[in-house]
Write a structure and sequence with these properties.
The protein has helices at 20-40, 44-53, 57-69. By secondary structure, the protein is mainly α. It has a domain at 20-69.
């Protein structure tokens, strides 16, 4: 009787951790920015600009904040 050793292959499992709370906060902020920017627009062109501006509001906020703190 012969015994053979069969090598076992371990699968590399990649664990992805998702931060769903940050996604939720950004989503709520996006909806709020749409309401703000589109609500203040008076023309169709302004509403379209407001729609796209809502996507980049975090970048605008950080830029304006850093510009404010960099005043001499």
């Amino acid at each position: 009787m012969t015994t053979e050793t069969i090598p076992t292959v371990k699968e590399d499992k990649k664990i992805m951790i998702q931060n769903k709370s940050a996604d939720s906060v950004y989503g709520i902020g996006l909806i709020g920015a749409w309401v703000y920017f589109i609500g203040r627009a008076t023309t169709t062109e302004g509403k379209i600009k407001g729609f796209f501006k809502a996507f980049v509001w975090p970048a605008i906020f950080v830029y304006e904040t850093l510009k404010f703190f960099n005043k001499e």
